[in-house]
Write a structure and sequence with these properties.
mainly alpha, Hypothetical protein af1432, 11 helices
């Protein structure tokens, strides 16, 4: 049985660090804004936004074992960067811990960190809401927020994926192949006649 909104917020607040919980509330609000703008179901966006980091209750070093317990496959990039596992693990955790059994919400949570092929509008807006929610403060975030207000959905997500690749490259980190695949697919779709 699914929990009420208030019960979910209380459970999440009890498990996450205060800053992470505030971030989750910010993503939920930003997801609702984007859902209204792009005609996506607001309740699904709000719920996916709130619960997108549900697996951050686990310390990074525990993410691989928690993923294995749930029979999640771990690719070589995730093995090298276990923090990435919080997204697919979170998709499972929201069903286990919060009673949320909606496949679209689960997929949006699973893809909120690295994207993926055939992203739905909900996937795209949760990915982007995570980047621009009001508590985020980094160089370039205001330009991304402008995209959220003015660009098409695909222009917005293309910008987000591109900026993510630039950021990860500048840090000298690995780029998940799903991020590259998502960006290429959107670019190819925009170029199609």
């Amino acid at each position: 049985m699914s929990m009420t909104w208030e019960e979910m917020k209380d459970k999440l607040a009890a498990g996450l660090k205060p800053e992470r919980y505030q971030h989750s509330l910010g993503v939920a609000d930003t997801a609702v804004f984007l859902a209204r703008r792009f005609g996506v179901a607001e309740e699904k966006a709000k719920l996916a936004g709130l619960l997108h980091d549900a697996a951050r209750v686990f310390p990074n070093e525990a993410l691989p074992s928690e993923a294995k317990k749930r029979h999640l496959s771990i690719d070589e990039v995730e093995a090298a960067m276990p923090l990435l596992l919080h997204a697919p693990l979170g998709a499972i955790l929201v069903a286990e811990e919060y009673g949320v059994k909606d496949a679209e919400i689960a997929q949006a949570i699973a893809r909120h960190t690295v994207g993926g092929r055939s992203m739905t509008p909900l996937d795209k807006l949760i990915y982007f809401a995570d980047m621009i929610e009001p508590n985020r403060n980094y160089p370039g975030v205001e330009e991304l927020r402008r995209y959220a207000r003015e660009a098409t959905l695909d222009e917005m997500i293309l910008k987000g994926l591109s900026e993510s690749i630039i950021f990860v490259t500048q840090k000298g980190s690995l780029i998940h192949p799903d991020t590259v695949a998502a960006r290429n697919e959107i670019l190819l779709g925009m170029r199609a006649p």
